[in-house]
Amino acid sequence: MVVGNGALDWELAMNCLKTFLIFFLFIPVSGCGNLLYLSKLGWHQSYITFHSIPVPEVLEDQSIDGPSKEKICFIQEVKRYGEERLGLKGGKSYTKFFEAKGPILHVITASEKDRLRLYQWTFPIVGKVTYKSFFTTEGVLKEKQFLEKRDLDTFIQPVGAYSTLGWLKDPIFSSMLRWDESTLANIILHEMAHATVYFKGETELNEQIATFIGNRGSIDFLAERYGEASSEMIKAMDGQEDDLLFSRWIDGVCRRLSGFYEQPLSRDEKLKGREEIFQSIKEEFKEIKVQLKTDCYRDFDQLDLSNAVLLAYRQYIHRLENFQAIYEYFGSDLRKTIEFFKEIRASREKPSSYLERWMKERPIFPINPASIQPKY
């Protein structure tokens, strides 16, 4: 990127400095290895910040094709909808464009092998988190090796977008332009939800709230933009229905597996027995697969199943029916539902306790308030 004036030079320099300071705040609380992790995150994020181009310049660039420009304008429209209609924070995110090659991030999840318990990393600002992100394949594979030496299950997923929770200006990545309108609207609103409602140390709840807001928000937006009978809106609705279907199924799978791990068996017996259960899970999934309307979960039976895989999927979609019930309680008004989540955050009460108490006080049927508490 060519910088044309001193003022822009200064802005870029300050943004890069801010990036390093923010990642310093996010450093895990112990270990020299974490300092190296911090420096690499800071360097890559600064590179993205420095090489991101303002959207107006991209739209004026004659070398960029029309469909890509239309997607960029579509993202701006989704952002405005999120801000003006839903009360989500957008700030200056998605006002710049970054040319990406391959996945933006590689995210690793880990779990104990003989019980459904996610491994956690601790950060001063965001608290405990149940996944760790890397900008490079080399970095995530080293972490995988480290975790597996500690006898943990691991699962790596490529990620095409992420949120810095409003601390930085999240750009539009070129890889995002390959997504269809339904996926794109969902992801933008999902990431905006993270910047708006974030509970420290509550990774699963944060992801589940963002998943619900992304799902429901994209349905409403696309219905308004294209019409309720449009293919775009129908695809968004199909995606939400698949999430709900898979959520109910994987919750049952986790209950079954957790019950097995709780039996008075030796660790070796549990490790041997779980392989038979994993195989049966793949067989059971065949019944779910034929009911799916989208491609989101179709390759699930091709994965090498482990506790980490099951929990990585589950943490995004557990409790979606609870959030649907809350949404309906507020008159199917997503903005009011988001304001409710903001109220929980402002209360500073543990969110699971707040939700359990709040739901017990109201006739939200058929939701079981106790299901708010994660059990695996």
Question: SSE order in H/E notation?
Answer: HHEHHEEEEEHEEHHHHHHHH
Radius of gyration: 21 Å
Largest sheet: 3 strands, mixed
User: Helix amount, in percent?
Assistant: 55-70%
**Class from secondary-structure proportions:** mainly alpha
* Spatial ordering of strands, largest sheet: 1-2-8
Stretches with pLDDT under 50, minimum 5 residues: 1-33, 368-376
State the shape. globular
Q: Kindly give the count of domains.
A: 2
* Mean residue pLDDT: 86
**What is the subunit organization of this protein?**
single chain
The number of distinct helices, counting runs of at least 4 residues, comes to 13
User: What proportion of the residues form beta strands (DSSP E)?
Assistant: 5-15%
How many beta-strand segments? Answer: 8
Ends distance: 48 Å
Please provide a written account of the structure.
With 376 residues, the chain is mostly helical. The chain folds into 2 domains: 209 residues, no CATH class; 142 residues, no CATH class. The chain is built from 13 helices and 8 strands. The strands form 3 sheets. It has a 3-stranded mixed sheet. A hairpin with a 3-residue loop joins strand 4 and strand 5. Helix 1 packs antiparallel against helix 2 and helix 8 packs antiparallel against helix 9. The chain is globular. 34% of the residues are buried. The N terminus and C terminus are likely disordered.
